[in-house]
């Protein structure tokens, strides 16, 4: 991946942090070179995970024609009904999303595995406004 292409993409997004741009270039290059099928991105709230994932996805599609999709852990929160039941039977904190046990890990693994097999998959979307998955 050309650093100039990545810099242009970053400029279009209003990103001027050289470290961010270099990290994006490194990951894009290694994903392509090694034919990586899954990339995990971690970081604190507001650290740029979604921006990094979106830009990496765009780079891989435009520069190397690699079909891909992004998944967000937030979209795999258990439904409000499920969390309400857990709050009533296990611990009240289950009502609040984010605590351990509030993600539907099996659903996330199923979606990821089906995508890797090339299947067409409906990816859940969590609506933070309604505090529920659509």
TrEMBL record:
<dbReference type="InterPro" id="IPR027417">
    <property type="entry name" value="P-loop_NTPase"/>
</dbReference>
<protein>
    <recommendedName>
        <fullName>Phosphoribulokinase/uridine kinase domain-containing protein</fullName>
    </recommendedName>
</protein>
């Amino acid at each position: 991946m050309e650093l100039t292409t990545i810099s242009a993409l970053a400029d279009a997004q209003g990103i001027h942090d050289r470290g961010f741009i270099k990290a994006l270039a490194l990951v894009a290059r290694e994903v392509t070179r090694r034919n990586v099928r899954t990339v995990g991105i971690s970081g604190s709230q507001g650290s740029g995970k979604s921006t990094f994932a979106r830009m990496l996805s765009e780079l891989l599609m435009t520069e190397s024609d690699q079909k891909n999709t992004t998944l967000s852990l937030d979209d795999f929160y258990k439904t409000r009904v499920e969390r309400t039941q857990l709050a009533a039977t296990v611990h009240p904190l289950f009502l609040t999303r984010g605590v351990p046990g509030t993600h539907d890990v099996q659903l996330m693994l199923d979606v990821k595995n089906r995508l890797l097999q090339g299947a067409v998959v409906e990816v859940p979307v969590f609506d933070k406004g309604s505090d529920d998955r659509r």
